[in-house]
Specification:
259 residues, alpha/beta, 6-stranded parallel sheet, 9 helices
Length: 259
């Protein structure tokens, strides 16, 4: 079930991500409910215990990376048996649990969907601004997103312990669920002439931001209710994504405070 932000004030604020190494230890960590931030498996690994691990990963929908043994040896000098898992310092939430509770409280949902944000410091900076702006949740994909690690947490000034973070298999499916829940999707993209200041943010809203290199995926752009961009007066064509997030979020704050 959805749990209030205050729970993170009581959460242990670890400075480093915990590593679990060894096939059996990783299986037990997953089965006990630990959040796996990333998982590294030695290329060519086999055997009955490894097959059991693969079944556990499939059952829980956990992705992993095949890496050379040299990478694992650099991560730890312990007997890793070809498998190292990094335990997330936060507990991920579910969008399906969060949205109904926001409505029950009489609030207009405000969410931030981050598509392909791979820089941990950008993620941390966005989380810090989002928490200050009253965002109810950050939504990131399971694949192709920045790891929530000590650098991200430090850059967020601890906001990643306070704000809800949802890690979803598909941002497109999540976006469609939000639309079905009465939440408008506003995609910030250069593929429009409409200014972000022309959008009504007093209604339930999810802002979508993409990486500076790739932008927002075409499918998310197609299904968005509104496309908007930040007006630019200078010769440089784009802003850092964390700055863009701040500009958009505080226009939401401005409009909602004016009600």
């Amino acid at each position: 079930m959805y749990q209030q932000r205050q729970r993170y004030d009581r959460q242990e604020k670890r400075e480093t991500n915990q590593q679990v190494y060894g096939i059996r230890a990783v299986i037990e960590a997953i089965d006990s409910g630990k959040e796996i931030e990333s998982l590294f498996i030695q290329r060519g690994l086999g055997g009955a215990l490894f097959l059991e691990l693969k079944q556990v990963l499939s059952r829980h929908g956990i992705s992993y990376q095949h890496v050379p043994v040299e990478k694992l040896n650099r991560m730890t000098r312990k007997n890793h048996q070809g498998v190292i898992a990094v335990i997330s310092p936060i507990t991920y939430q579910r969008v399906e649990d969060i949205v109904p509770v926001i409505y029950e409280r009489g609030a207009a949902p405000l969410l931030l969907l981050l598509d392909g944000i791979t820089d941990v410091r950008n993620l941390g900076a966005i989380a810090r601004t989002a928490e200050c702006a009253g965002v109810h949740a950050l939504v990131v994909p399971k694949k192709g997103t920045a790891e929530i690690n000590p650098d991200a947490i430090k850059t967020s000034a601890g906001a990643l312990f306070k704000i809800n973070v949802c890690r979803e298999d598909s941002l497109v499916k999540t976006a469609k669920f939000l639309q079905e829940s009465g939440i408008q999707l506003v995609a910030y993209t250069e593929k429009t002439d409409r200014s972000l200041y022309e959008i009504d943010y007093t209604v339930p809203t999810a802002l979508i931001l993409g990486s500076e290199e790739q932008g927002i995926s075409d499918e998310l752009v197609r299904i968005a209710d509104h496309l908007a961009k930040i007006p630019m007066a200078g010769s440089i064509a784009s802003l850092n994504v964390s700055v863009s997030a701040g500009v958009g979020l505080y226009e939401v704050v401005r409009q909602r405070l004016a009600i």
